[in-house]
Write a sequence for this structure.
């Protein structure tokens, strides 16, 4: 009983810290859940668009803010690269939807970013296949919460992760691909699985626990303190289990 209570206490301590980290900045995966209705976005021309109505094929959702000095540009560059390398047809086999999670940004910034990547992506279907949007704070909160995208404002910028969220034509979340570089095969597999409504998990939560985004260096760095503390707790747990697991010596064994 003592060993069980000890295990529950330590696991609760580690798990609670892990959960708080995930909830503050990162991805809280919502696999197999459906995006809600009544989320309104604004396109590059300032027109209101219902997000759910956009999803009529495998849809890849990404969050950025257009004036981001950090990983947003590498993320969009990575998207542009995998579009060029993929043998799938943009706008037919799949589509991309990029949304700014900074409610202060408007359609003019979205249009400028779309125009920049229109010059970079040398494939047909760019105009309708990769769309850029903005939204107000209420709609952004509803959308980011529904897909588990967590970010934190720090001064004039934000702490956030880089990820692609795959949504099936029926609106079901099927896959998360994390980072700023995407393998064409993995990208295509995620699209194909999304078209069939097949979901797959990632090791995203473990990576987010071990790494933090450094806004100064504009890169992910290992959180040595957190990882070291976890290792110390884990080793201590093993030592305590070993001590409690030792069989008690019977009086006859002392003779």
């Amino acid at each position: 009983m003592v060993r069980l209570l000890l295990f529950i206490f330590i696991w609760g301590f580690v798990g609670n810290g892990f959960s708080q980290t995930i909830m503050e900045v990162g991805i809280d995966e919502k696999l197999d859940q459906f995006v809600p209705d009544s989320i309104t976005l604004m396109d590059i021309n300032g027109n209101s668009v219902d997000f759910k109505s956009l999803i009529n094929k495998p849809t890849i959702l990404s969050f950025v803010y257009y004036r981001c000095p950090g990983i947003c540009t590498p993320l969009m560059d990575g998207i542009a690269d995998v579009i060029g390398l993929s043998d799938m047809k943009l706008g037919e086999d799949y589509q991309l939807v990029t949304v700014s999670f900074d409610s202060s940004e408007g359609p003019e910034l979205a249009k400028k970013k779309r125009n920049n990547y229109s010059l970079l992506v040398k494939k047909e279907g760019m105009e309708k296949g990769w769309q850029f949007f903005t939204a107000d704070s209420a709609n952004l909160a509803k959308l980011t919460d529904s897909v588990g995208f967590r970010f934190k404002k720090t001064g004039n910028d934000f702490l956030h992760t880089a990820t692609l969220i795959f949504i099936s034509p029926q609106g079901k979340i099927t896959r998360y691909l994390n980072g700023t570089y995407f393998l064409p095969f993995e990208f295509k597999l995620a699209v194909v699985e999304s078209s069939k409504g097949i979901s797959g998990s990632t090791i995203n939560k473990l990576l987010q626990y071990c790494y933090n985004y450094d806004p100064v260096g504009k890169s992910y760095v290992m959180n040595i303190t957190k990882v070291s503390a976890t290792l110390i707790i884990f080793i201590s747990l093993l030592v305590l289990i070993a001590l409690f697991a030792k069989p008690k010596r019977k009086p006859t064994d002392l003779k």
Remarks:
- The first strand starts at residue 26 and ends at 27.
